[in-house]
Amino acid sequence: MMNSSSLLLLRRRLLAIGLSIFIACFLIGYNQPTHIQHALEDITRNGPEASEPKRHRSKEEFIATTMSSALEDNFDYSHIREVCDAQQWDSTVVFTCHGIIGGIGNIRQEILHCIRYSISAGAGLILPVINLRSASNLSNLTSGTTSMDYLFDQDRFLSRMKNACPQMPIYKDLDELKKLGPVTETEMIYPRKLPHCPLIPTYSAQSRVQELKAPKGEITLVPFERVWQHFPICRDSVGFANTFGLLLPLRRDVHRLAAVILYELYSHYHLSIDPSVTTTNPQAHSFIGIHLRTASDILPYWIKYRDQANYYLKRMDSSQFLSSLPIIYIASGNISSVQEFSSEVQSLSSPKPVVTKYDLISGADRDELANLTWDQQALVDYLVLTRSAYFMGMADSSFAWTLAVSRRKTSSAGSCGWRMGSWKSHLWGTSFRDEFSDLIGNRGYGWESRMWP
């Protein structure tokens, strides 16, 4: 049996060993490319996007190639199909996605969550209905309703669902469903309140649906409450996590307008943008992308302009890689903020032009862009920003998070990997950082694990 002095000596040795391990882990993490000081300088990018195009493409060819790569429907459906094949399906149960609301970041995840829980219950689906934002008051998100083709390509969604999950019947609306027989609507299912063991959440609605199921001979309609960063995407395979979001393609017209803008960046500023790669592949040595979230609908506790601007300016001035990029493409719903930020950029050690979508489009294309609603125009910004060499936004914004997680799947960690040294970036005020994106703020830690790219 140890005496008190021997026990004290043992404790000191264990403490010293533990401290040594901690310091070693810190130094290992510190030297990873995602560290706050070295995230960009240590990046090495290979492949076609890292080199200049071999020849200059005409505008027509550039736009056609961009559209062809963006609208390609023959992605790998096998991962989604495998999950659907393993599910027990019930043709008498149908989900309806309740309360779909917000901008593209929220709405996309809300619909994907609804589809994923529908699959888990072996249920059909009524095409989602989207709540409209008021044009005169951006904070009013319930000024009417519209179909999902307001933001998405509905026909291609249906085609992709048929290829990926043919077992799931999809109905245009409630009237179409009622033609099949009597419909009984159940109480709302709240995914965060599904029955579960303590500290072990449930991510399947199947048991609850069986409890609520209508009598035999009736169709059970299940309203599913909206949720947008809840389901752990890597609960399924990495392949599923990477392809599930592809079920929701954006409208064709916004793809074309984004292609026009990308061509202007490519031709006027001689940027390395390869139109033949998909829109989710970040482009090395192209441009800095920034989402300046200062529109009139911001919430009181969100990060204000000054903190956003200071962070972006400091990051650009302290990074050799960002300083080397020739231009900034900025997305913002506040033109005054853009003008102020543009002026401040000129005081950097490496000043550069700051452009928006309206600076890069003209004629009939500009008129077409202007006729889109605020949320539809955001789709154009989204598609352009996916091609940036590095993207910066703020963590209060679902739009910025959507960009970060979409780009993440091409990072070294991928959608389901661990970002070495990522925990230290939180100490410096960023919620997310990898080789391609940086989100300032102290909200949303871990959201990347619950948002499909």
* Poorly predicted runs of 5 or more residues: 19-53
> How many β-strand stretches?
13
What is the tally of helical segments? 16
Largest sheet composition: 6 strands, mixed
Q: What is the share of helical residues?
A: 25-40%
**Radius of gyration over C-alpha positions, nearest whole angstrom:** 24 Å
Describe this structure in words.
Helices cover 39% and strands 11% of the residues. By secondary structure, it is an alpha/beta fold. The chain has 2 domains: 77-247, Rossmann fold; 250-440, Rossmann fold. A 6-stranded mixed sheet has the order 10-9-8-11-13-12, sandwiched between helices. The longest helix has 27 residues, at 4-30. The protein starts with a helix and ends in a 13-residue tail after the last strand. The model is unreliable at 19-53 (pLDDT under 50).
Summarize the structure.
The protein is α/β, with parallel strands linked by helices and 453 residues long. The protein has two domains: 77-247, Rossmann fold, CATH 3.40.50; 250-440, Rossmann fold, CATH 3.40.50. The chain contains 16 helices and 13 strands.
Secondary structure topology:
Layout: H1 4-30, H2 59-70, H3 78-85, E1 93-98, H4 104-120, E2 124-126, E3 129-131, E4 145-147, H5 154-164, E5 170-171, H6 174-178, E6 183-185, H7 206-212, E7 219-225, H8 238-243, H9 252-268, E8 288-291, H10 305-318, H11 320-324, E9 328-331, H12 335-345, E10 354-355, H13 363-370, H14 374-385, E11 390-394, H15 398-408, H16 422-427, E12 430-433, E13 437-440
Parallel strand pairs: 1-2, 1-7, 2-5, 6-7, 8-9, 8-11, 9-10, 11-13
Antiparallel strand pairs: 3-4, 12-13
GO molecular function, one term: transferase activity
InterPro entries: GDP-Fuc_O-FucTrfase (IPR019378)
Protein name: Alternative oxidase
